[in-house]
Here is the input.
Amino acid sequence: MKVLHDVFQRLLEAYGPQQWWPGDSPLEVMVGAVLTQNTSWKNVERAIANLKQARALTLDTLHAMSHEELAELIRPAGYYQLKAKRLKNLLALIADRFDGEVDELLSLNRTQLRDALLSVNGIGPETADSMVLYAAHQPIFVVDTYTSRVLKRHGWIQFDADYREIQELFHMGLAEDTELFNEYHALLVRVGNQHCRKTPKCDACPLRAMLPDGGPLEE
DNA sequence: CACCAGGCAAGTA
DNA sequence: TACTTGCATGGT
Here is the structure.
């Protein structure tokens, strides 16, 4: 799929490198991945700031903290009861199966790591893949709402394509390159935020020349 | 005021 | 398997 390379070039030229994932440690990346589920990154930043303020971005602190305490700190990220539980589930995985060491979890190969993460209640495909790519730095393509929307509106995939099919498209069409996958996903989120919202704003979009005749496709 | 954001799981038929 | 619903804050 040559179009995948073209899209990447256009986005990179328009926006430049995105320097993802914002975060100082693998644990912070993983926490952020849970907190940003269906949530704007702006709100996640507030929650992360609260955790840092409380010196709560270490495994030990998080593990020792009560559900109520954790929930209150991450409140700005929304779904805070649910996400506190999901973070605790992730901590439990690390404590129970990886000797309480994040590095031991992250040293698994990408397939085993993905499966381990998916076994946690509250971690689905996108969150798991975000952790594999941005915390473990292994080449897996992260598919999110914007990725799907951009491809569908341009007619590059079927509207009923699921997560696995979209991910396979990128895996088949691109070199298996962690830096490429990193930058590409971040750029798709960027163009999605600015142009490929629910109601599209294609006027100044870097990809507008690639639209089908008659504009973006819809269901 | 309504709508949306870097999803996921559980319930229903 | 294929839909539907709950979860929640903060910005536009």
Residues 58 and 133 of chain A are 20 Å apart (CA to CA).
